[in-house]
Specification:
2 helices
C-alpha cells in the first residue's frame, strides 16, 4: 500500500514538474517578446541614441 502511495506521488510530481516547465518556457517566450517591444524598432532606438547624444553635446 505504501509503495502504491509513493508511486502515485511520484507520478503526480512528474506531471507537476513537466507542467511547470512548460509554463516557465511560455513565460520566458512572452517576456522576450515584451522586452523587444519595449526597445522599439531599430529606427526608434537609433533616433533615441542620436537625440541623447545631441542633448549631451549641448549641455557641455
Amino acid at each position: 500500500m505504501i509503495k502504491n502511495i509513493f508511486e502515485g506521488t511520484k507520478e503526480v510530481l512528474t506531471e507537476l514538474t513537466s507542467g511547470m516547465t512548460e509554463v516557465c518556457q511560455d513565460i520566458s517566450v512572452k517576456i522576450e517578446g515584451f522586452e523587444v517591444r519595449l526597445m522599439g524598432t531599430y529606427e526608434e532606438i537609433e533616433a533615441y541614441e542620436k537625440s541623447k547624444e545631441i542633448v549631451e553635446e549641448t549641455t557641455k
